[in-house]
Specification:
- The chain is mainly α.
- It has 23 helices and five strands.
- The chain has a domain at about 25-115.
- Helices cover about 65% and strands about 5% of the residues.
- Strand 4 and strand 5 form a beta hairpin.
- Helix 3 crosses helix 4 (about 115-130) and helix 20 (about 500-515) packs antiparallel against helix 21.
- It starts with about 25 loop residues before the first helix and ends with a helix.
- The model has no long low-confidence stretch (mean pLDDT about 95).
């Protein structure tokens, strides 16, 4: 069987091997070379695009490495210095010259000579980016990035002490699965206590972010940052109103179901109401499931899932394992959360996580591995911007892998635990939709109203909690409730959350297809991933043999599928 040439080395064709994008003077000269190059034929236009892509690829990899270093060790001053150097001194040069190069590209008559079918979406996106570019926003982008880095530094410093032992916030979360309710409550309060110590600092930080982001939108001629973000993110296939309709559909379809389910959960647990420390405990009282013992154990078990799922997928993951492209365990000083980033010149992915031994870590690794398979599949796209897809489909890649992995959970869990894990996974998907709606609704509100001070923000989150999580009893936890919106995406990736909701619908469709014909569903999945961002959302979904949808009917059908499976 012929597998992908995964070890392929992508040689630089236009820039020397010694070219260093972190040197501002050298970088500026590289941009000037592209800007002054001749475009007097179709051949020269193609060379121009390839040269531009190559430079962007090198810059992106330098940025990815700096970001990885900074999040792997938030206490390292050299990593912070390197990252801030890029933010303060390099990215402003990129913003300036990228805009000038876009002007040159869009104004050339040879734009009509290149393959219209392939470059159509790139031209559309480039025009959109050019229209909203404002030179005065360059400094504001720098400020916003620095504020985001401050958030990482604050949250990366959180450490908890329980029974004489120190834990990261992620490590302490494992106790939320303990059958002893007192242990769950105590560890929950300790975890959120670390957050509450910095809540005012985080409020101040968000105030600054709102000012910066509002100024960016105003400078670009928009009424608010929400409207700016939709254009900036290239959301050509849905509107803010579509998001609101999806929120409504979730409220009508899923919230009543969760109210019913959680009444039953309370009965089984013998409790009067569901408190935040009761969210992750197994109502069947089967005890804590220890998914793995070490990082190596996690990697080996998940590798077995992929090797048995599909040869190419297994090969991709084994390559990451063998080439130190995985940093999975939680430790002091490491930024919270998880992500996959591209080392874009090498055209290989890198996964960052905060695993602690729980079953949720397995889902997280499956998720981030799905992103990495997307990166591998799209690596042959000619344009740099086509080697990644719109986030709404990028998350289909990751969320589908969580569900496709279900069939192989016996490679990770004990036989008696497999069905419990499968059930919990589907329940958590249903529970996710209302929380997604809360995060997205909050951001729609916060960026379109002037009444968004810290008191109003707390009040708004209360309203959203009552609307989307009425089954969650937060009595006596006012301070905690009113700061639950202080979530990583809200700070570091504004308006990046509805994508998860759209993609979860798509992923459930991929899973539905796999129940009928797994081999074909996976092949459709891989074929769609290979398109990268070369076509729009509806065509990407179609290539995966699923439907791009945000309506109540589609949501109800997939909820019914989950209920049937449960």
């Amino acid at each position: 069987m012929q597998l992908s040439p995964i070890h392929k080395v992508y040689e630089r064709k236009f820039l020397s091997g010694e070219f260093n994008p972190r040197n501002a003077e050298i970088l500026e000269q590289a941009y000037k070379t592209i800007l002054t190059s001749s475009i007097s034929s179709k051949y020269e236009m193609e060379n121009f695009l390839n040269h531009w892509s190559e430079l962007g690829t090198i810059i992106d990899e330098a940025g990815a490495i700096a970001y990885v270093d900074m999040t792997v060790d938030t206490k390292n001053p050299e990593y912070e210095k390197t990252y801030l150097h890029l933010v303060e001194n390099i990215y402003p040069i990129c913003d300036k010259y990228e805009n000038l190069i876009k002007e040159k590209f869009l104004s050339s008559k040879f734009i009509h000579e290149i393959d219209k079918n392939y470059f159509e979406l790139f031209i559309k996106r480039t025009k959109s980016e050019k229209e909203i570019f404002r030179e005065e926003n360059t400094a504001l982008f720098t400020e916003d990035a620095k504020l985001s880095q401050t958030y990482q530094k604050i949250t990366g410093s959180w450490m908890c002490e329980y029974e004489g032992k120190k834990y990261t916030v992620q490590q302490l979360a494992v106790f939320q699965e303990n059958e002893n309710r007192e242990i769950r409550e105590n560890t929950y309060r300790i975890r959120v206590g670390e957050h509450l110590k910095d809540k005012e600092k985080l409020e101040d930080l968000y105030d600054e972010m709102l000012k910066v982001r509002t100024s960016i939108a105003t400078n670009a001629g928009f009424k608010n940052y929400r409207d700016y973000a939709f254009v900036m993110k290239g959301r050509f296939d849905y509107t803010a109103e579509d998001c609101m309709k999806l929120h409504d559909a979730i409220e009508e379809t899923i919230v009543p179901l969760l109210v019913e389910w959680n009444k039953e959960k309370c009965k089984k647990l013998g409790i009067d109401s569901l408190r935040p420390w009761d969210l992750y405990v197994d109502p069947e009282k089967g005890g804590i499931i220890k998914a793995f013992e070490t990082e190596a154990d996690l990697v080996d078990k998940v590798e077995n899932i992929f090797l048995n799922m599909n040869d190419l997928i297994g090969e991709y993951f084994r390559y990451m394992k063998q080439n130190q492209l995985l940093d999975l365990y939680s430790r002091e000083g490491k930024a919270p959360g998880g992500y996959m980033t591209d080392l874009s010149e090498k055209r290989v992915p890198y996964i960052f996580m905060n695993a602690v031994g729980s079953k949720r870590d397995v889902d997280t690794l499956l998720h981030e591995a799905g992103h990495s398979f997307h990166s591998f599949q799209a690596r042959e796209q000619v344009l740099k911007s086509y080697r990644s897809s719109p986030l709404e489909f990028a998350e289909v890649a990751s969320m589908s892998m969580e569900l496709l992995g279900r069939k192989y959970f016996h490679y990770v869990y004990k036989k008696d635990d497999v069905q419990r894990v499968k059930k919990e996974q589907l329940v958590k998907i249903i529970e996710f939709f209302p929380f997604m709606s809360m995060i997205d609704s909050f951001q729609h509100w916060v960026y379109t109203t002037k009444e968004n001070d810290r008191v109003a923000r707390g009040k708004k989150w209360r309203e959203l909690n009552a609307r989307f999580q009425p089954y969650l009893d937060m009595t006596g936890l006012d301070e905690i409730l009113e700061t639950r919106w202080q979530y990583p995406h809200v700070y570091t990736s504004p308006f990046y959350y509805i994508e998860y909701g759209i993609a979860q619908l798509g992923a459930l469709m991929v899973w539905k297809n796999s129940l009928l014909d797994e081999k074909k569903a996976i092949q459709d999945y891989l074929s769609a991933l290979s398109l990268g961002g070369s076509v729009g959302l509806p065509k990407l979904f179609e290539a995966c043999n699923i439907q791009f949808s945000m309506d109540k009917k589609s949501l109800q059908e997939l909820v019914d599928l989950i209920k049937k499976e449960l």
